[in-house]
Amino acid sequence: MSPEPSRLALRFKPENASFKAKVAELSGEEIDLCFQCGACSSGCPLTAEMDLLPSKVIRYVQLGEEAVLESKTIWVCSTCFNCEVRCPRGIDIANVMEALRQLMLRKKYDRVSLDALEPEELRGLPQIAIISNLRKLTA
Amino acid sequence: MRLPYYPGCTLKTTAQNFEESALASARALGVELVELPRWNCCGTVHALAKDDVMHYLAPIRNLIRVEEMAESGLVDEKRVVTLCAMCYNTLKRANAVVKEDQEKMQKVREIMERENPYGGSVQVVHLLQVLRDLDWSKVADRVERPLKGLRVAPYYGCLLLRPRGFGIDDVDNPQVMERLLEALGAEVVNIPFKTKCCGAYHTVQMKEVVAELSHRILDQASSAGADMVATACPLCEYNLGPRQEEVKKLFRGFAPLPVVYFTQLMALAFGLEEATGFEQNDPDPRPALRARGLLKEES
Predict the structure, then answer these.
(1) CA B236 – CA B262 distance, rounded (Å)
(2) Which of A128, B69, B72, B153 has the smallest set of CB atoms within 10 Å of its CB?
(3) The whole model's pTM is what?
(4) Which CATH number among 1.20.1050.140, 1.10.3720.10, 3.40.50.300, 3.30.565.10 corresponds to the domain B2-128?
(5) What is the pLDDT of residue B85?
(6) ipTM score over 0.90, yes or no
(7) Distance from CA of B138 to the nearest CA of A (A)
């Protein structure tokens, strides 16, 4: 996702309050505690695959910018909780990522499909991989 | 000591070597792991969304089985032992949430009205914690074939340690596998990435990304002179082990490094070779073990 510069709200807009509140409620996290230190992003093992750093995802949510739902990052996060143990403000960033995924999945969005895999490849995968993958990435 | 044991799905298929070696080694230490009757998949991942109730049913149903087992005298305690790191995390966290959140507990009971209501009396542990509680000297005393000269890099991954408050050991510098390996006579090889993610379930659609992450972990281990990596998670084992086929495609000159379950090394050291199941590991750890004189030469 690469939003046009004009879509970037640098100040919180009151009309974005409901999205921000929804993410806060689903994740159980106090989003405004984040002061953008970047510790989550520096410890994240998957940033090379992300379009937005985890700390930027949190900033989008602070601003209530729903465009964050189009980010690849929320699907690349592997819920390893490295960010959670690094955050000096006590935010469980993985919970926020999950809330954002849920907002998409609950609209019947499937990020992945096993149909894309060769049957032979699918047979070689342990159940633990398939079940967790579908739990995280499909509606 | 008879303890309830929750295997989880993968322990019955691609990780049979994990289960067999764990059950045999525990028995050798006087711990009988009694499998839960009618257990079901835990769901593999904890339900993080605060309003989620549905995904608590699977883990909690297993905890009901534990209470029933204790009630009928099949086990001595309500401490349920797990082997798989993901099962450990999922059961542990679901248990913690429903004990804390009475409203959620009530909903779970209502939905599962045909089950006995969960009493919240179960404690979820991992086998490594049970071993630590026994005392390492007891483990060392049982060793028949010390793993002398074997250099092993412990790899914990994510869900045995995180998030904070749910791990089996220190979140930054866990030592439980190190102490076990020392008790078995092996040499511990430290790697900076022992708690970094292997890519987990992305192995399904993003195997190249998993190969990148696995390579970093494996390369640290082999460059530090490890003969093999030890793990406690069937998904880590898959990503670090069989996924080396993908690592080879990305990194020219990559030398395969065996990845084993800590329980396999325990069974080997205890002289329970028939329960080690090394033939199921990929890459094969047996040549490295023969080179250290820990397995007989191939006939």
Answers:
(1) 12
(2) B72
(3) 0.96
(4) 1.20.1050.140
(5) 98
(6) yes
(7) 33
